[in-house]
Amino acid sequence: MSKPLVLYTAATPNGHKVSIMLEELKATYGNIDYDVEKINLSTNIQKEPWFIAMNPNGRIPVLVDRSHPTAAQPNGFAVFESAAILLYLVQKYDKEGKFKFESGSDEESQMLQWIFFAHGGVGPMQGQSHHFRHYAPEDVPYGKKRYGDEVVRLYGVLDIGLQGRDYLVGPGAGKLSVADVNVMPWVRLYKHAGVETLDAFPNLKAWLDRLLERETVKAG
User: Fold this and answer.
1) Which residues contact 63 (CB under 8 A, 6 or more apart)?
2) What strand order describes the sheet that includes 5-9?
3) 17 with 7: CB under 8 angstroms?
4) Which of 156, 159, 145 is nearest to 194 (CA)?
5) How many CB atoms lie under 10 A from the CB of residue 210?
6) Can you give the pLDDT at residue 172?
7) What is the distance between the alpha carbons of residues 141 and 79, in angstroms, rounded to a whole number?
8) What Rg, from alpha-carbon coordinates, does the chain have?
9) What pTM was computed for the model?
10) What is the pLDDT of residues 83-94, one digit of tens each?
11) Is 125 helix (H, G, I), strand (E, B) or coil?
């Protein structure tokens, strides 16, 4: 029997962040379940018409909410862009606000600020660092240095944001929220981006270790 949600995904940071959020919601509420459709990116199946109908950008992840069919999408409402998927999930399924903050609050604004910082900075810059270090058809030292240096700078920003805190947003030491889930899968691949150690970023290192210990993160 089909489950209410289906995630079209692959083993990438953007894919992992959604499966982690789903596992967090499942562990918290127990009544959330989902199917997974693994997408082999090397075959370009994500560029086929059936996939483009869900995401015109032809990229993973895509979440389809079968419990919410519409006239335009009778098989379920489709959401693309990983950060947008995370926000959709907590807006619709996080009824007790475990991973979000009160609408209109300063904390909600801060959460969105960190989400946009990661979505516009960490993900794209680290993705380029991965490309030039591991996948480019020729050696481009400038590309490696340019994006490697930017990853280091962005990690420094996160380290400042985590000073005296366990999580990026929330009163006191903070609480786990979409802000953390959105960026952690990128940071845990720091070595792939050419950052040998996080020792220069003790707050970020402690935060990453804390998140990696969660069973929901391991499952996601």
Assistant:
1) 5, 6, 7, 8, 18, 78, 79, 80, 85, 88, 89
2) 34-38, 5-9, 62-65, 77-80
3) no
4) 145
5) 15
6) 97
7) 37
8) 18
9) 0.96
10) 999 999 999 999
11) helix
Cis link prior to 56 (omega < 30° from 0)? no
What's the token pair of residue 30?
């127990």
3-state DSSP assignment of residue 20: helix
CA distance 86 to 32: 14
Model pLDDT for residues 179-208, shown as the tens digit of each residue: 999 999 999 999 999 999 999 999 999 999
DSSP category for residue 75? T
How many of the other CB atoms lie within 10 Å of CB of 69? 13
Residue 1 has pLDDT above 90, yes or no: no
Distance in angstroms (rounded) separating the CA atoms of residues 39 and 142: 32
Return the structure tokens found at 103. Answer: 């609408």
Contact 204, 155 (CB under 8 A): yes
How much is the pLDDT for 2? 81
User: What are the residues facing 77 on neighbouring strands?
Assistant: 65
Q: Exposure pattern of 99-128 as b/e (b: 16+ CB <10 Å)?
A: bbbeeeeebbebbbebbebbbebbbebbbb
Rounded-to-integer distance, Cα 70 and Cα 24, Å: 27
194 in the Ramachandran plot: left (φ > 0), alpha (ψ -120 to 50) or beta? left
Strands (E) in the chain, as ranges, are 5-9, 34-38, 62-65, 77-80
Instruction: Determine what percent of the chain is predicted with pLDDT higher than 70.
Output: 100
